[in-house]
Amino acid sequence: MMNALPFEWFVLLLRIVFIFLLYFFLLLVIRVSLRELAALTNTQQPSAQVASGHLVVQAPGNTTLRPGTRLRLEPITVIGRHPQCTIRLEDSFVSSEHAQLTWDRGRWWITDLGSTNGTKVNGLPITAPTGLRYGDVIEVGDVQLLLVP
Question: What is the pTM of this model?
């Protein structure tokens, strides 16, 4: 009887160690999974910043738009006369693909797409991608558009 008792205790001890190791392994798996999910969430937050903004027509030029009309911006917005442009302006001074507004790094950027009459921001012609702020006036041909949130 004395020989059987230590072996039973040994088996019991092995079972307890096995259960402990199993729960410890599960704890580590959950901890690593949570850490990876947190890292994934942190890397997606800056890019998940929603592009928000509108262009408000100040001077419609020769278009059928009315002053005060709000035009919704998409993360990549192309302005021009072409039917597939995001914002279509039927004005003889607007090129088929005149300018592009892009949401990048938490702000709007405008690029002239090689238009004939150029693009202006606050009355100044642009030659390179230019950062915009809310309240800036964009001139595309004879059309003046105000950038608002």
Answer: 0.65
